[in-house]
Amino acid sequence: SGERVAVVGAGPAGLVLAALLHRAGIDVEVWERRSRADVEQRPRAGLLEHRVVEFLAAHGLADRLLKEGERHGWCVFACLGERVRVDYGTLSGGFRHWVYPQHLLLRDLVEKLDEIGCPVHFDAPVQELDGTTLRLRQGAVRADFVAGCDGAQGVVAASVPDSLVTGRRYPYDWLTVLADMTGPVAGVLYAVHEAGFAGMMPRTGNVARLYLQVPAGADPADWPEDRVLAALDLRLAPGAGDPRPVRLRERGMLRMRGRVRRGLRAGGVFLAGDAAHVLTPSGAKGLNLAVADAADLAAGLIHRVRTGDDSLLAGYEARRGAGAWWAQDFSDRLLDLLHLPPGGPEERRFALRLRRERIRALARTGPYATAFARDYAGAESV
Ligand code: RFL
């Protein structure tokens, strides 16, 4: 029909969307600010929901992931010297995560787009949007539809009038490191501790992503390597045979905030992924939500281009808003479990005991544990 879609951003949302549209015979191109090497090498997320992998697999976008990724169906909560294993794979009735680093997924998607002939332009920052025309250093690109998949600080959102943001700044931050460990990390560990939360998430081989609660606004300079290692050791309290960090690769500070936009569409311009909502990494939902947005937007655009009917697209904002609030709520409840409220020693002890109680309930067969397990693993279909 000759209608053109411009996708801004080659993250999970943009690349999945482009692949689906191109496959459906739609004229689509991706514009990405960073270099290809940068996109393919920057480690971020790594825990993929069941439903997301099912979706990617059904569209032929998970070949390598299915071969090389690892299934993951349990996590451990540590609290007051007790370790509680939550077998969410079993409690949910068989839904598990896949562990596969985000940058490898992006590498695979870029490769797939190359293979099917969908253009991805790297080193091409979109500077401004004028209706559905992109302004780039290289010149102007006209499109009929624009998908703003340009992340939390994107330029597309700025051009969507009335795109209101509701958000929360949490009263703490997470220092995050990628670490070489003494051995492979078998599963996710969440440690709820008097001194603050610490977490450990498996990546590939002996590499793990570690998180450490620090005061909001903390300066990374105050957290040199030995301080980080000592805090991790205290809070994670590894046993004799457990993997320990030996080398910290890259250190970052995650300013903890949740944010949901209202106004995900203006005419032919749409927002998806982190451009539409930002989640804290607590529930590992950000990447998953980005793919779910892309799936929904692709279906709406394909229907619109093929039939001229806008009704599916018209519901995009409501459906994806609901998806974002669901994930936001899940992440917020998990954060609440993982952090102690401010207070004196007595209040903190009380709060710790309450958290241990809730953690035990997550492992006990019943509707509470089943609901958590299904939400965590992403049981509902995309
Ligand atoms: P992305 O991945 O940020 O991609 C946006 C892309 O847009 C480009 N861009 C532009 N391109 C052209 N012109 C412009 N003007 C542009 N402005 C920006 C950017 O360069 C970039 O390539 O957004 P998307 O696709 O919405 O995907 C979102 C996910 O990347 C994000 O939610 C997750 O990484 C969050 N997250 C996690 N999510 C999970 O589901 N599971 C996890 O285990 C998990 N762990 C994490 C995470 C995020 C982290 N960081 C660093 C924020 C762990 C970490 C440490």
TrEMBL record:
Q: Which GO terms describe its molecular function?
A: FAD binding; oxidoreductase activity, acting on paired donors, with incorporation or reduction of molecular oxygen, NAD(P)H as one donor, and incorporation of one atom of oxygen
What Pfam families does this protein map onto?
A: FAD_binding_3
> Domain FAD-binding spans what residues?
5-330
Record bears the keyword Flavoprotein: yes
The record's annotation in InterPro entries points to:
FAD-bd (IPR002938), FAD/NAD-bd_sf (IPR036188), RIFMO-like (IPR050641)
Check the record and name the Gene3D superfamilies matching this protein.
D-Amino Acid Oxidase, subunit A, domain 2, FAD/NAD(P)-binding domain
Does the keyword Methyltransferase feature in the UniProt annotation? no
| Keywords annotated in UniProt | FAD, Flavoprotein, Monooxygenase, Oxidoreductase
Protein name (Swiss-Prot/TrEMBL):
FAD-dependent monooxygenase
